[in-house]
Design a protein that fits this description.
single chain; alpha/beta; CNF1/YfiH-like putative cysteine hydrolases; five-stranded mixed beta sheet
């Protein structure tokens, strides 16, 4: 894993956990239509999911509406495993469930409970951060699985930062996590600005909306298929 993606090292050190952050894919046409961009990116993203040891049918994604709703998955009656009107996904220690969040300047925040096995992955840009979606996710992890903040490993993906953006929401996310009781050493920020590194990452702001999406992934493989 490159230095830019080492923010996941502590999450990946938790036994059984698989995580990745898929950066810019060379050669993919850029468009201002999000869903068209995701269709073009899907073959490369399918390969990335496969490299983690999952099938595309294991992947659950959020619609991402810049709110603070966090959904528990798997759930019944969800078409194509895309959960409407939500910006965060939560699952227990169940293996073979993969969480996915798309970003192109906003942060993907990985939350991993070392004790209970619960996992959450949230989309937190300026609006999501204002609504403290990471705190909502922690509260839901506690309510559903008895998670305690002291057991959480948290990782904040590359995202846009000053001076490319007027608000340093990555730092605010880290403050929210620490304020909720996650120990400082267990909150890891990438520190990489997507807007300053458009050769490696997509940036909605810098590319004026004509861009692709990175894909954050977090889950647990089925038994006996963990990392070697």
């Amino acid at each position: 894993m490159t230095g830019a993606l080492s923010f996941l090292d502590r999450v990946l050190a938790v036994p059984g956990v698989e995580a990745s952050f898929i950066p810019r894919i060379p050669g993919i046409p850029l468009t201002d239509d999000k869903w068209s961009a995701l269709r073009d990116l899907e073959p490369a993203h399918r390969e990335a999911v496969g490299r983690l040891g999952f099938g595309w049918e294991d992947l659950w994604r959020a619609e991402q509406v810049h709110g603070d709703a966090v959904a528990l998955v798997p759930m019944e009656g969800v078409e194509n495993r895309v959960v409407d009107e939500t910006d965060g996904l939560l699952t227990g220690g169940r293996k073979g469930v993969l969480l996915g969040i798309y970003v192109a300047d906003c942060a993907a925040v990985y939350l991993c409970d070392r004790r209970t096995g619960a996992l959450a992955l949230v989309h937190s840009g300026m609006k999501g951060t204002e609504r403290a979606i990471v705190v909502r996710a922690l509260e839901q992890m506690a309510a559903e699985y008895g998670s305690q903040a002291g057991d959480i490993e948290a990782a904040i993906s590359p995202c846009i930062r000053p001076p490319r953006y007027e608000v340093d929401f990555a730092s605010r996310i880290a403050e929210q996590l620490r304020g909720a009781g996650v120990p400082s050493e267990q909150v890891v920020m990438s520190g990489v600005c997507t807007g300053e590194n458009v050769k490696e990452f997509y940036s909605y702001r810098v590319e004026r909306g004509k861009t692709g999406r990175m894909l954050a992934l977090l889950g647990r493989r089925v038994e006996n298929e963990g990392r070697s």
